[in-house]
Each structure stands twice: as structure tokens, then as C-alpha cells.
User: Fold this.
Amino acid sequence: MSEIQANGSAAENRMQEIVSLCKNRGFVFQSSEIYGGLRSSYDYGPLGIELKRNIMLEWWRNMVYSRENIVGLDASIIMHPKVWEASGHVASLAILWWIARSAKNDSAQTRHRELLLEQIQRSLLRIKNEQNLRKSKLKKITSSS
Assistant:
């Protein structure tokens, strides 16, 4: 057995130990376990939901409350395709795909990298402008109350 395989199996065993401990202590349970379970689906137990909530709140404090240029948003990942297009995700992925496909040609790869960087800069500027607009709207709303 190679060292990589040994490390992989050791990591797998360690993961099984962690999952077993979490189940025994009431952190997580396999979803629908009494009916055979669902692969890779877990439900949170009483301690698990508290841990998840604490981690989420701490992340929110560090990423949203402590930064002026960030606002909180809770939205669904499943959205209309036009939302993904408007946000620039579709175009960015298309450019990244094109770069990967043209990796054989260094000059083409360099040009596509430049295009990607230009697009990222435009997107960042657009996002910054949108955030400033949202902030000014929020200030108007809160100051008129």
C-alpha cells in the first residue's frame, strides 16, 4: 500500500470517527436514517443547530457588521437565469472556460487573461457603485424615519 493510500484511508477512518462522535453527542444525524438514510444529507440535532447558529453569527459579525463596504443579503441560490447573466456570473464562467480551452496557445491565453482582468475590474467598479447607491438609499430611508 502506498503512503498516499495509507493517508487516504487514515483520513477516511478519522472522518468516520468524527461523524460517529457527532452522532453520539447529538450534533448531526443522517437524514432519514431510520429508513435507510440519504447519502450526504444530515439533519442537525439540538447541539448541532446551536453550533451552526453560533458559527453563522460569528461569521456575520466579522464579514458584515465590522465592514462598511458590505451589506447583508439572504437570497436563494436557485434563481432565474437572467439574474446570473445580470450579475456577470455567466460571462465570467464563459471567459474562464475559454481560457482553459485556449491554454495551448500562450498568446491567446495572455489575451484572454487580460480580458478577464478587465471584466473583473469593470464588475468591481459596478459593484462598488451599486453599493454606494444602496448605502445612500438606506441613509435616506433611515433618516426620514
